[in-house]
Amino acid sequence: MSSDLTFIGLFLQASFIVQLIMLLLLGVSVASWTFIFQRSRALSGAREEMLQFEDKFWSGADLNKLYQELSARANVSGLSSIFCSGFKEFVRLRKSNTSTNGIVDGTYRAMRVSMSRQVEDLESRLPFLATAGSISPYIGLFGTVWGIMNAFIALGEVQQATLAMVAPGIAEALIATAIGLFAAIPAVIAYNRFSHQVEKLENSYANFMEEFSAILHRQAVAAQAQQPA
């Protein structure tokens, strides 16, 4: 056996199955890091959008003007999208002379649907990170077992085995486990971190929906009280 213990040397010496597993795990690692950067930017953008919208909303801005301003944008997402969905449904139901409870319920359902879409978008690619973090170590372990098995089969064909003959075969097999852990650890950390961030955003969205529903309920009651008997 060759004594080249560099990473490239061990990769080239490995069997085809182990090489295939290494390449697969490297591909998973590259995809995981790509999704990690994408999700990090997306969640940071969602938090920034939420803070900016809350500043405008709670500054006492007129709801009609705020809705018109947001609706004029080409792309509305996050809390702004939830607000637009709810306010649009509120105006539609109020024009149809729906009861106060019907207006509030319909508005809340519209916002709930919009929130589900926003959360679904924020959770995009997270299942891949969870899967990569769960199965990568086992794929790497399979490559290690396969490599060590081949190393011992090769040793069985010689009369006298030495450490110099065993070390390269075992080292090239253990590379697969190392790559599996390299792919799994960042994916698990990112998945847990992003899941927590998505949960916090979802809670913030739900709190806003409750507060906004209460505001719209007061407006609906006030509007019906002003109507002539």
TrEMBL record:
NCBIfam families: tolQ. Keywords: Cell cycle, Cell division, Cell inner membrane, Cell membrane, Membrane, Transmembrane, Transmembrane helix. GO terms for biological process: bacteriocin transport; cell division; protein import. It is found in: Cell inner membrane; Cell membrane. Residues 85-205 form the MotA/TolQ/ExbB proton channel domain. HAMAP family: TolQ (MF_02202). Part of the Tol-Pal system, which plays a role in outer membrane invagination during cell division and is important for maintaining outer membrane integrity. The Tol-Pal system is composed of five core proteins: the inner membrane proteins TolA, TolQ and TolR, the periplasmic protein TolB and the outer membrane protein Pal. They form a network linking the inner and outer membranes and the peptidoglycan layer. It comes from the Bacteria. Its main location: membrane. This is Tol-Pal system protein TolQ. GO terms for cellular component: plasma membrane.
